[in-house]
Amino acid sequence: MFQPIAVYRSFDPHQELSAFIECYWSWQVEPDGDALDDIFPDASPEFIVHFKSIPFVLTESGKWRQQNRAFLYCAAHKALRLSVREPMSVFAIRFRPWGVGRFSKVSMASMLDRPVLPSESLNEIGDQLVKELRSAESDSSRVAVADSLLMNALQSHSTIEPRLKMLLEAANGGRCSSAEMARKLSVSDRSFSRLWSDVVGIQPRKFVQLMRFHNALELIDGGVKLSRVAADCGYSDQAHMARQIKVIAGLAPSSLRRRLGNAVYRDLYASRPGAPWRGPK
Questions:
Q1: How large is the greatest C-alpha to C-alpha distance in the chain, in angstroms?
Q2: Which strands sit side by side in the sheet containing 88-95, from one edge to the other?
Q3: Which of 112, 119, 194, 211 has the greatest number of CB atoms lying within 10 Å of its CB?
Q4: 153-204 per-position pLDDT tens digit
């Protein structure tokens, strides 16, 4: 099995940004050959800046295409297969599913499952972020740059509905339907769906499916019996869980368990400070 040399580090954003940004992270990789990895959808947008080599992504046509040097990407409906062929250095801003709407004038629904250039995704601060992050000499200085620019944008641009801060608690780890979440927030199903979709980009039902999937990932990786995983994560039964996982990951639960042992996954994902459905501490 491929075992790359990889170091993942995460950093907390400024407290006033934590409702919209989960973390900043950096990743240093020195592959021994061609490393393949799947990035599973979670509806959490990430602003990525590459400093060394740039990995390749498998397109729907079955061809490999090199990624952009800097971009925002939100995997919402399908897994993204990457090929890391040379030493790579990355710094990224991981937004919460509703977080980009606090800094951008562009609808999140128009930015799903595709690389979005900095100037489109984060408007006037996008290119400035890339320039200053690439000029910084350390992760700590990059964190300071990101905090400064995003805090200024936070103060000057506000479009997000305050009640969205309650959505995470209302969702109850993926165990609530969109109708139940709407009732908790005292809004109609239609209003809730429209509000959620405008900011997060996908329908509430799809987001609940992704939450369940990532809850299941943690338990499957931990060796929990699959029937117990299905019950604990809100699936109707094990067969229902298998179908949902196959749609999202392209793998059966048993195959997914083997894939989670991949060193790239374990370094980049298992050490993250929180899953995408978890709110600020």
A1: 54
A2: 5-11, 21-30, 88-95, 46-50, 70-73
A3: 211
A4: 886 655 555 555 566 566 665 566 778 878 877 888 888 888 778 778 888 8
Please state the separation of Cα 183 from the chain's center in Å: 27
Query: Which residues sit opposite 84 in a β-bridge?
Result: 35
Element (H, E) at 49: strand 46-50
Going by the DSSP 8-state scheme, the letter that residue 26 receives in this structure is E
Of the CA atoms within 13 Å of residue 197, those in its CB half-sphere come to 12
Nearest alpha carbon to residue 105 among 57, 172, 158: 158
Spatial neighbors of 9 by CB under 8 A, at least 6 apart, are: 25, 26, 27, 139
SS3 at position 42: coil
> From CA 222, how far away is CA 218, in angstroms rounded?
6
Tokens of 51: 């400093």
Closest CA to 28 of 103, 92, 79: 92
The answer for residues whose C-beta is within 8 angstroms of residue 11's C-beta and 6 or more apart is: 23, 24, 25, 26, 139, 140, 143
> How many angstroms separate the CA atoms of 33 and 3, rounded?
9
State how far the alpha carbon of 67 is from the alpha carbons of 53, 80, 88, 119, 160, in Å. 10, 12, 12, 16, 30
Report the predicted TM-score, pTM, of the whole model to 2 decimal places: 0.82
pLDDT tens for each residue of 130-153: 999 999 999 999 999 999 999 998
Listed by start position, the domains of the chain span 5-159
Q: Which residue has the tokens 């990355």?
A: 90
